[in-house]
UniProtKB/TrEMBL annotation:
Subcellular localization: Nucleus
Amino acid composition bias (Low complexity), ranges on this chain: 143-198
SMART domains named in the record: GAL4
Protein's UniProt keywords contain Nucleus: yes
Signal peptide: none
Domain of life: Eukaryota
Alphabetical UniProt keywords: Nucleus
Single GO MF annotation: transcription cis-regulatory region binding
GO cellular component, one term: nucleus
Keyword Nucleus: yes
Gene3D superfamilies: Zn(2)-C6 fungal-type DNA-binding domain
Protein known as: Zn(2)-C6 fungal-type domain-containing protein
Gene Ontology biological process terms in this record: positive regulation of transcription by RNA polymerase II
Amino acid sequence: MTTPTGNGDVPAPDAAAAVVSKPKRVRTGCLTCRERHLKCDEGAPICQNCRKSNRQCKRGLRLNFIDTNCQGPPQKAPTLEWKVDFMDESRDIASEYVGGLEKYGAKDARPSRPSIVQAHLQTTDMTGMPMFEYNPAAVAHAHAQAQAQAHAQAQHAHAQAQAQAQAQAQAQAHAHAQAQAHAQAQAHAQAQAHAQAQTQGNPPSDPNMSYQALPPIQGMLPESYPSTDDHKYGAYNTSNHATQDSPFSNQQRNSISAYSQQQDQDDTTEGRREFLTTQEETLFMQVFVEEVGLWMDSMDPMKHFSRLLPFHSLGEPMLLNAFLACGARHLVLVNSAYSEEKALHYYDTATRYLLKNLQNPNRDTIVCATTAVILNVYEIMSERALQRMNHIAGARALIKECGWNARSQGIGAACFWLNVGLEVLSCLHFNWQVAWDPDDWGIDMDFNREIHNGREEIWTHRMLYIVAKVANFRATIPRHQEPDQRDEEMRRQNRYAEWQKLKSWTDAWNDNIPRTMHPMAYLYPQHTSSKSCFPEVWLIKRTTIVARLFYHTVMVLLSQIHPYFGLDNPEMHDMQHRHSQMICGITAHVKDRGVASVAIRSLAHAAECLTDRREQEEVLQIFQKINKETGWRIAFVFKELKEKWGWQDEPQPPPQPIAPVHSTSLLTSPVPLQQPYGQYSTNITPVAAPAPTQTPAASRRPPAGMVNPMFANADFTMPSHPYQNVYVAPNPVTNQSALYYQA
């Protein structure tokens, strides 16, 4: 509203605009002042506010949603029951406007060109496949003429679509019958060629399976194995490989043909379970999830083995039997009321499933590798484990076949870190070099200070890498001196430089880990209520406990392998004593059974440094507690420690509470594998209860310093690779497994 001037005149609009000018926009200045809601003087290079408050003067252009964390959307593998209907509502919407429907031409009733996926589905299985047909429902509300025209067009299109669908169904049925006839003829021709080749004696013989007929494996319906077409696997319509071409791609072709014929005849696909239905399976799965899966997932943030894979195993009999075998095995170890027959049954069943799948080039390599890793864990817990290490090299070879390393995600990362972690613990015990060179793991060793919580597993992986490097350095200690004093001094200087690098890595790791990986509480022995000789160290997260045990173990080992100084040096002696006390303090007060596998090896190294009799007795009590709760076989530790401490004529520790037979374990046994490593005989029979006696050869300890012999042939590119006479190289396809989407 305008007011009259003094002389009664009303000012013109231009004059009013000139009087009330538009306020000038205030410039925002630096981003730091904007965040603090302050007026910025826009001084360069640092404004006055940032200079006074000693803050970083942030410059640049800030857009909305700059802090939004955009991640890839979750993906789910489509199943055969997955139905997709395409609805085009553009005509319906246009018909609601005057003249809108007239802008659309007459609908083309001709069927659209089928996609590659549709063509494949039609050739493989036409039952239950939804027909993607268009159903126009034009409802014109504007004019009666347009409504009548749309209705007539819809009726005409529907009639043509029905006729076309019937003709197409007949043609597809005829084509499917021809395809079946062609497949039968091709299989017959392959059988004749295989029989003729056998009479000539050239091709390799089929695997000699002396056990019973293998139970059917769900989800393999190949028409001809040399093809790379997708086949059904359980509830999924994809068969996965994360692998590359292999030099074994063309071997055992005749064996594949014979196997293809047999599987076409007697293969039956099991339905996917919704849940477990028997009390026995439920008990064994509960034990696995609550006891075994705990330490298997100690370095996995997603907890695949205890939280995700059990659900996926409902559709994978091979995976399910491996889980049940581990659960039953643990019950045998901790409760003498359970016999090992059930565990052996599930183990043999899972092994037969795995061997049968390894003959299929169109197999799901991720499921096979995961199953082999779990069966390897069973063998580590098993009685007479060293006589039955059938999957230790096979699991490593299948992991390499999938291309898994430190940069993998999901189930690949879980299997990789579990596998290399078990090897590192074994090498620490036997004083071996790690077979898989840590420099080939592909781990990120950026030790910049961690400012984000929740990434503790990444730092645990980095510490495991350092442990592996220290194990290699320790195993390569020279056993003799060089004849030339100059060469000896040069070698010692090189090793000292390597020692300094390992020590600097370890210190940098401890300085840059997040606060959540440091102790929450530290109580001196006189302040604890447990009357322990060791300090109480409280760490909250399981992976943090594992990482700290690794860290203190590295420091203890570094104090013992200094190239120039021995333990008589005060600095080295203090470092060994301080970190050995920390290891004993952590294991004496930890309540998490999921760290037992790492705690055993770390505590064994720390206990060797103890000199006080009361501390030594408490360590033996800690080992007895671990044995009682977890079933790990650690009787040999008592003998080794007492020899180290100089105890003479001491009574033996109380007998192990469960085992009807003498048992050993890869992580805890002083004797390595005596058979050719990683060789799995195909002439398998169901394993009976093991005998308590062992051969004299089983008592010989291997020489220290060698590369881990159990993984000497853990690669399918080697002539003596695992699973001889069974393994067939997979087809190099690129489709993903259902397990891939569980990451």
